[in-house]
Amino acid sequence: MSKKILVWFRNDLRLHDNEMLVEAIAKSDAVLPVYILDARLFEKTKYDTQKTGSIRAKFIIESVESLRNSLKQIGGNLLIAKGNPEEIIPQLVQEYEITEVYHHREVAMEETHISSLVENALWKLRVNLKHFIGHTLYNKEDLPFPIKDIPDAFNQFKKKIERDSIIKPCFAAPDRINVAEVIDWGNIFALEDVNLEPHEKDQRSDFEFIGGEQEGIQHLHKVINAMQQAATSKNLILASKLSAWLAMGCLSPRKVYWEIKKMESVPNAKAMFNHVLLGLLWRDYFRFMFKKYGNVFFKPNGFGSQGLVDQDNQQENFNKWRTGQTGFAVVDAVMNELNQTGYISNIARQTAALYLINNLEVSWVYGAAYFEERLIDYNPASNWGNWANIAGVGNDQKSKSIFDLDKNIKNLDPKGNYAITWAS
Ligand SMILES: Cc1cc2nc3c(=O)[nH]c(=O)nc-3n(C[C@H](O)[C@H](O)[C@H](O)COP(=O)(O)OP(=O)(O)OC[C@H]3O[C@@H](n4cnc5c(N)ncnc54)[C@H](O)[C@@H]3O)c2cc1C
Question: Where is the Photolyase/cryptochrome alpha/beta domain (predicted)?
C-alpha cells in the first residue's frame, strides 16, 4: 500500500522552515495538505467577547489563500474544509486511505484539547498523529533541561537559554510536492461564513497587514532595509510589526532571527537586532511557561491573587474601556486604534491593561479576552501571559513592579498628538 500523509495546517501557514511538511514529502508517496475552518474559533466567550474578530479573521483567510497558492506553485494544493477537526480528519483518513497524520504541537488548553480529540479519534482507526515542534525560536527538544526546570523569571530564562542552547538553521521550503488525488479541494471561506462583517481600513493607519507567507517575507525584508537605513540616523526603528505573521506561522521565528541577524554587523544596527531578538525571546518564554504550567494562565488569580475588583461596576467600566469611552484621553486613543486597526504597540497594550486593572478595577481576564477578539497578532501564550504579568498574577511575581502607567503615557504620547489622532 502506498504511504499517504495528511498534513494538518493550523497556525503554521508557510512552506519555509516547516519540518512537518518537509518530512511528510520525504516519507510519503503522496501528501494531503489540509486546513480546517473550525467554527469554535469564532464563538462568543463568557466575557461577552468573541474569540476572533473580523480584522484577524480577514488576515487568517488571506494567509490560508496564500498557502494554497504557494502549494499550487510547487505542484500541490490545499484541501479546505469546515467543521470540527476531530470529525473531519478521521473522515479524510478513511476516504483517502491516509497512513499517518502530521501536525504542529500547540501549547494553550483549547488548542491542545482539540489535538487530543483528533489523536483519540485517529487512535480508533489505528492511525498515528505525529507532533512536530515549529512555533519557537529555540526548540524544546534541544534544551539541555526539561520544561519543568526552565526558570520562571524571564531574565534567568534568557541567560540560561542563550548560554545553553542553540538556534537551529531553517528548513528549506520544498520545491515540489506530490499530493493525493482529490476531486474537490474546497473553497476559500469568507467572513460571512463565520458571521463576520468586513472592517473598513482606517485612513489614519499608514500600515496594512496582509496575511500570507509571501507578504510576511516581503515585510521582513522591508523592515530590515528600513532598519539598515535608520542605523545611519538617530531614529532607530524598534517595532518591527512582524507579530501578525509570526502569530499565524506565516513567518517562522527562526527565519526572522537569521534574517535579522545579518544586521548585527551593520554599524549602529545592533540595538535594533537586539530589540527584535528580545521580543522573540519573550515570545518563546511565554510558550514555554504555558507548556510548564498549563491553564493557570487563564485563571483570574493565576499564580497569585488579583488586586481589587469593583464587582458592582465591572461590566459598565469594561464597556467604557473597550469602546474607548473612559474619558482618559490616551487610554481611549489606544482602544480606538486597537478597534480600528487590530494593532497597537507594546507600550500601548501595557497602558490599556494597567488602566483597566488598576484604575477601573476590572478583572484582567476581561481585558485579555477583549484583546483576544481584537488583536491581529493574537496568540494565547503571548496575550494571556503578558496580561497575567501586568496583573501581577503571572509566574514571575517580580514583574508587576516594573509597570508604571505615568511613565508609559509619557513615552507613548509625549506631546499629546497620539491622543488627538485617535480621539474617536
Ligand atoms: C497586554 C499585552 C498583550 C499582548 N498580546 C500579544 C499577542 O496576543 N500576540 C503577540 O504576538 N504579542 C502580544 N503582546 C506582546 C507585544 O506587545 C507584541 O508582540 C508587539 O507589540 C508586536 O509588535 P512588533 O511585531 O513590532 O514587535 P517587536 O518589538 O518588533 O518584537 C518582535 C517580535 O517579538 C515578539 N514579541 C515582542 N514583545 C513580546 C512580548 N512582550 N511578549 C511576547 N512576544 C513578544 C512578537 O512576535 C514580535 O513580533 C502583548 C503585550 C501586552 C502588554
Answer: 3-137
Q: Which residues line ligand 1 at a C-beta cut-off of 6 Å?
A: 239-243, 246-247, 275-276, 279-280, 282-283, 286, 345-346, 349-350, 353, 371, 375, 377-379, 382-383, 386-387, 390
pLDDT digits (tens, 9 = 90+) for 9-54: 999 999 999 999 999 999 999 999 999 999 999 999 999 999 999 9
CB contact at 8 A, 74 and 175: yes
Chain centroid offset of residue 382 CA = 7
* Ligand 1 atom, smallest distance to 253 CA: 47
Q: Which of 11, 377, 389 is the pocket-test mutation for ligand 1 (most atoms within 8 Å of CB)?
A: 377
Q: Whose CA is nearest to atom 6 of ligand 1?
A: 383
d(CA 249, CA 243): 10
Are 46 and 160 within one domain? no
Summarised one tens digit per residue, pLDDT across range 169-182 is: 999 999 999 999 99
Q: What is the CATH number of the domain that holds 389?
A: 1.10.579.10
pLDDT in tens, 262-298: 888 888 888 889 999 999 999 999 999 999 998 899 9
Q: Are 392 and 307 in contact (CB under 8 A)?
A: yes
Query: Closest by alpha carbon to 135, among 16, 286, 284?
Result: 284
Residue 141 lies in a domain: yes
Range of the domain at 116: 1-132
Number of independent structural domains in the chain: 3
Collapsed DSSP state (helix, strand, coil) of residue 73: helix
Which residue has a Cα nearest atom 41 of ligand 1?
A: 282
Residue 89 pLDDT class (50, 70, 90 cuts): very high
Q: How far apart are CA 370 and CA 388, in angstroms?
A: 14
CATH number at residue 38: 3.40.50.620
- Indicate the residue type of 410: K
